[in-house]
Specification:
four-stranded antiparallel sheet, 9 helices, single chain, 23% strand
Length: 396
């Protein structure tokens, strides 16, 4: 990951303020007026006590005293392609995962920062989003530190359409949206590695939703990339479904297995195969890896429909299956370039899943990650005030 970079601008205030067009990074600021912005603060003279330019001082003063609002967004994902314990560059064991990104559903956060109030005076709506509230508090402390301001309180409001308890990263989506909203209220844009560190501190383990859609092996308990596996996932068509009737999974109640050396060797083998599948665009090999990882996940999750799911995938001519290793969402993976009628295979798969009591949700492609969600007949885009649904996926 790259060092933290920041984009700052004058906060949106609730009362008139002097116009500023500012950008901060590593302790520098840009301003217009007496000096032209060129990447670092340029102004006539500096503060003899701090060495800061008048533009930087004016910017910090405006940000530090004006009530400001910020917004942030974050996506979700569709479970994992691979999850296990791997070796980092120093040979140390690390829990890691490769997520299957999902375009469309996500979380939105709006943060109203109130300078002069104590930092503990931070509220969140809905009130049960404790992880997002912790993330907002951590982000306030970090942003205030960067700008040399005292931390303050405020109100965080969360909306979105990511189902809870299915293993789609709903809490991480909330956390990242909250961090981005707080930073936006300060006129900052935190780098992905900084967001990852705050997310892990807020919820102990984080999905890599703060990154772009590149396939990465991510150490979710440390907030760092173990390996970039390639530039992009190969084209996939995913028939989404939910196991266990879509009932949320209590991840804290799942049994904890001891990881053996043999387990690590197998995970490293799957990592090698997945790297090869991504770099060569081999969907069949990717499906094999995802299925093997999903099968290992059953040692903990023990979904009773798993064997039915894999059997339907085979009969439908799919490349494999993937699941959320901490939830109930799953997907049947198809290669759009494989011989035969793709639409017929997808329809047959959906019919078979529903007939066996495995509810289908949405069918999507990895191409949507680059082009945006495809608009199909019957789509109903989520509105900003859409409430969080407890178990169902947004239907397409």
């Amino acid at each position: 990951m790259t060092p933290a970079t920041h984009r700052a601008r004058a906060p949106r205030t609730t009362h008139p303020a002097a116009p500023l067009d500012a950008e901060t990074g590593a302790g520098t600021a840009q301003a217009t007026g007496t000096a032209q912005a060129t990447g670092t603060a340029r102004a006539t003279g500096t503060d003899p006590a701090t060495g800061a330019s008048p533009a930087a001082v004016a910017l910090a003063t405006a940000i530090g005293t004006a009530t400001a609002t910020g917004t942030g967004h974050a996506p979700c994902h569709h479970g994992e392609l691979l999850q296990g314990v791997f070796l980092d560059a120093e040979g140390r064991r690390c829990a890691g995962l490769v997520t299957l990104p999902l375009a469309g559903p996500g979380s939105r956060a709006d943060f109203v920062r109130r300078p002069g109030t104590p930092p503990e005076a931070l509220t969140v709506v809905p009130a049960d989003r404790g992880k997002a509230a912790r993330a907002a508090g951590l982000a306030v402390t970090e942003c205030a530190r960067q700008l040399g301001l005292p931390p303050s309180g405020g109100q965080l409001r969360l909306t979105g359409d990511v189902p809870v308890g299915l293993g789609m990263g709903s809490s991480t989506s909330d956390v990242i949206a909250a961090v981005r909203a707080v930073a936006d209220s300060y006129g900052l844009r935190l780098a992905p590695d900084a967001v990852a560190r705050l997310a892990v501190r807020a919820e102990r383990a984080s999905d890599p939703l703060m990154l772009d859609a590149r396939p990465v092996l991510f150490a979710q308990r440390e907030g760092r990339i173990l390996e970039v596996l390639g530039p992009a996932l190969p084209p996939l068509v995913v028939v989404g479904c939910v196991l266990g009737g879509g009932a949320p999974v209590d991840t804290l109640a799942l049994p904890v297995r001891e990881t053996t050396d043999a387990d690590v060797q197998e995970y490293e083998r799957l990592r090698t195969l997945l790297r090869r599948a991504i770099t060569t665009g081999d969907v069949s090999l990717l499906g094999q890896v995802a299925t093997a990882s999903a099968r290992r996940g059953q040692q903990t999750l023990n979904h009773p429909e798993f064997e039915t799911l894999t059997a339907i995938a085979r009969r439908s001519g799919a490349a494999g299956v993937q699941i959320a290793h901490s939830g109930a969402v799953a997907g049947v993976l198809f290669d759009p370039a494989a011989p035969g009628d793709l639409r017929h295979r997808v329809r047959a798969c959906r019919h078979a899943l529903n007939s066996h009591g495995i509810p289908t949700t949405r069918t999507f492609t990895t191409k949507e990650l680059l082009d945006g969600p495809a608009h199909r007949r019957g789509d109903r885009p989520a509105r900003p005030d859409t409430s969080r649904r407890p178990s169902r996926l947004p239907a397409l």
